[in-house]
Design brief:
Largest sheet: 9 strands, antiparallel
Number of strands: 56
Number of helices: 3
Structural class: mainly beta
Helix content: under 10%
Shape: elongated
Length: 773
């Protein structure tokens, strides 16, 4: 055998004694002595030759050596492939072949390989198979097919007897079989809607019917296709908040693991809703008599529109829009006409004094162009002395349409509230949806310290709740703050929605002498930069003197540096600017009372006009977190302050020729013996601002054209103010309710607003321009 030791001995006679040389016949070096031990390295037939030599000569003798190889010893191993796949190929590390897993009806194939060399044993010997619980029961050769008809754990169920061709002893190998039950039939699912055509605010029932699988279904989950709503259960109900065609998807989860999905579609009609909060006809504090007007402008130049209007009583709750069936009042509005209701609670709804609440406006799919709806609430107790009040635009529903708070836990802040010696603040919240709302209100001073206690407000569907003297009133209707001991001339309210869908918080800061409310609303889209128009200090008509306040709040938890740049046109018609960077602490409010005087360090005797003016507020550091900006413009009269308030303007308030909103609309303006209206237009802020132009057109209540003017805006002169009274002075007809459309825009985006001033009281009401397509 290779490696086996063999002793070779040479024997010869003679004198002198002979020496030996042994050649082993494998080309190795010969041995020089005898006897000698040698081993061959490989199997073969060899001839070994010994040569004996002395001085008299030499002689040789040979012998044959046969070296044979040892017989191969095999280590058989069984491989079972399941449906053509080797399970061990799916295991990244060591895989045991002592058993295999399969299911009833799986196609199985048996193979035999040498465990050490991996050699296919079909050519090395005979393969005989036995399958104790499978079919067929026996087989021979390589790649034998078999299968199971019943489930179970079968020990040593597959047996291989291997008989080698080289005459070595046969060997037997066995493996276990773990056979699972057959798979369940596929899960099936069908879904159905109670109606394929629904309406906003009307619930739709969805039903899912599952079959197959294990017959036990652990859960159903729903996606209603509006990127908002989800549901659970075999039957569920959902109310859509917007119109459109939606794909509804249900997923059923089988208890055995598989899932299945199915879809259906529903079309929700394009019913549109608008809410006008703060509508009243009631007596107030200090002898005030409040009433509300409503104006609706149809901006379409060609199409009439029909709308339904309902009153939401502030003392009675509703659970859904269906509760208003039979209470809607239908109004039709011609193209570019305005429908106006003076004291709407009386004139449209025929209700008595003492009612308050909100107005809900409804339009169906025929309303191709969004109406411009404006509500105004004012005190008429002065009689011939005029009115004081505020204007609040309608809020698009039903989902809040971006106004107010959209999700539980979100917050919105009202900045610029006041409770000093001659003013107080009322705070209101309008619920913009059909669910119930709980909101928490906390108050914070200019230095970031909390004032009083939190106030909880609960609202019914579409309800409006107002708290009078909210900071100083005792709990639970107020924060219980001691204003007499520590007046606060500037603070903020943080409103957090605890439960519910969407709300609109707003406040009115009331001058206790004039009874005039200044409206405070939250920023629709909090931004890092604002343009604040109309911050003037100038004499006006009817012996009025207008001045402006600016309020800036840093909601960040870090200190900020904020750039403030004031731009105005002086008495000589020259445009000027004055800017500075102002440090703001975390949560700090800075308020400039009579901003122009303070910012420019004017003496009390200064009477120069500061008109066509605005302020740009932007970060002066690398922190681009949102800030909040609001302002007031008011007239100091012997009977207290009267004026208006508004948040700063952002990119959300603009229209442009290249954007989706290509027009600006201002509705509900007045130009008669008692009221005058001015319109201001200005370039949006930003680094890429260029010149812009537009056409301003004025229409009366019947949609008749009254006047027009070209609007040039340049980088050098980015602000323009027009007197609507001067434009329509020569026009006839009723001008107690007029509308303005700014169209044919070119160049940079623009925004705008209007002021309606009562000539008798000197009070101004602000109407913000609405960007529309």
């Amino acid at each position: 055998k290779p490696g086996q030791s063999v002793t070779f001995t040479c024997s010869a006679t003679g004198s002198p004694t002979p020496t030996y040389s042994i050649d082993f016949g494998d080309n190795s070096n010969p041995a020089r002595f005898s006897p000698v031990t040698y081993s061959y390295s490989q199997a073969n037939a060899y001839t070994a030759t010994c040569t004996a030599s002395n001085s008299n000569g030499q002689t040789s003798a040979s012998t044959n050596v046969i070296v044979t190889q040892a017989a191969q010893v095999w280590a058989p191993e069984i491989w079972v492939l399941v449906n053509g796949v080797d399970p061990c190929a799916l295991v990244p590390f060591a895989c045991s072949r002592s058993s295999f897993n399969a299911k009833v009806t799986d196609a199985l194939t048996a193979y035999a390989y040498d465990k050490t060399t991996g050699q296919d044993l079909s050519s090395a010997g005979k393969l005989d198979w036995t399958f104790s619980n499978a079919s067929p029961a026996t087989g021979s050769g390589q790649a034998v097919r078999f299968s199971y008809s019943q489930a179970g754990t079968f020990t040593s169920d597959v047996q291989l007897m291997f008989t080698p061709n080289n005459g070595t002893a046969p060997s037997t190998v066995k493996v276990n079989a773990l056979i699972a039950p057959p798979p369940y039939p596929p899960v099936t699912l069908q879904v159905q809607a109670s109606t394929p055509n629904g309406a906003i605010g009307a619930p739709i029932t969805f039903t899912a019917t599952a079959g197959g699988g294990s017959g036990s279904y652990s859960s159903y989950t729903w996606d209603f296709g509006d990127q908002s709503g989800t549901g659970t259960g075999a039957t569920t109900s959902y109310t859509y908040k917007k119109a459109g065609t939606f794909t509804v998807t249900c997923t059923v989860h089988d208890a055995a693991g598989p899932t299945q999905t199915a879809t259906t579609s529903v079309t929700i009609s394009s019913v549109q809703l608008w809410l006008v909060p703060g509508v009243a006809w009631t007596s107030g504090q200090g002898g005030a008599e409040w009433q509300s007007d409503l104006s609706i402008f149809n901006p379409s130049p060609t199409s009439s529109m029909a709308l339904q209007i309902a009153f939401l009583d502030g003392t009675q709750s509703i659970s859904s829009i269906a509760d208003l069936n039979g209470k809607w009042k239908t109004v039709s509005i011609s193209p570019q006409a305005t429908k106006a209701f003076v004291n709407i609670i009386s004139s449209l709804f025929n209700l008595v004094k003492g009612n308050f609440g909100a107005v809900l406006v409804r339009g169906d799919g025929s309303v191709a162009t969004q109406p411009v709806i404006t509500g105004s609430t004012y005190d008429v107790s002065r009689g011939a002395g005029g009115t004081v009040g505020l204007s609040l635009a309608a809020i698009s529903l039903p989902s809040g349409a971006g106004a107010g708070i959209q999700a539980a836990g979100d917050v919105i802040e009202l900045v610029g509230l006041r409770d000093a010696a001659t003013n107080h603040t009322n705070l209101a919240i309008a619920n913009l949806y059909t669910d119930y709302v709980t909101a928490e209100v906390t108050f914070w001073g200019a230095d970031g310290t909390q004032l009083g206690q939190p106030v909880t407000m609960q609202l019914n569907p579409f309800g409006v709740q107002q708290l009078t003297n909210v900071l100083t009133a005792a709990a639970p209707g107020g924060a219980g703050y001691d204003k007499a001991a520590t007046p606060v001339d500037s603070y903020r309210a943080r409103i957090r929605i605890v439960s519910g869908t969407a709300i609109l918080p707003y406040a009115s800061v009331i001058d206790d002498v004039s009874k005039d409310p200044v409206l405070v609303t939250g920023a629709k889209v909090p931004a890092s930069s604002y343009r604040v128009p109309g911050l003037v200090r100038t004499e006006g008509k009817a012996n009025t003197l207008w001045r402006s306040d600016l309020v800036v709040y840093n909601p960040s938890a870090s200190a900020r540096s904020i750039q403030i740049v004031y731009s105005w046109v002086d008495g000589a018609g020259i445009g000027r600017t004055s800017g500075a960077s102002i440090p703001f602490g975390p949560g700090q409010i800075i308020q400039w009372i009579d901003f122009v005087k303070l910012w420019l360090s004017l003496p009390e005797s200064d009477t120069n006009p500061y008109i066509n003016a605005f302020v740009d507020v932007s970060p002066a550091d690398a922190n681009a977190d949102p800030i909040l900006v609001t302002f007031r413009v008011y007239n100091e009269t012997p009977t207290g302050n009267v004026g208006l308030g508004a948040p700063g303007f952002t990119d959300a308030d603009v229209a442009s020729a290249t954007g989706a909103k290509k027009r600006l609309v201002l509705a509900g303006l007045r130009s008669d013996a008692n009221y005058r209206s001015n319109v201001a237009l200005f370039l949006a802020s930003g680094s890429n601002v260029s010149n812009a132009g537009a056409t301003l057109k004025v229409y009366d209540a019947n949609g008749a054209f009254l006047a027009s003017a070209g609007i040039p805006l340049t980088v050098a002169s980015p602000f323009i103010q027009l007197s609507i009274d001067s434009m329509v002075a020569s026009s006839g007809g009723d001008k107690s309710n007029i509308s303005v459309v700014v169209e044919n825009l070119v160049g940079s985006p623009i925004s705008g607003y209007a002021t309606i001033v009562d000539n008798r009281s000197g009070d101004g009401t602000l109407i913000q321009a609405l960007p529309i397509p």
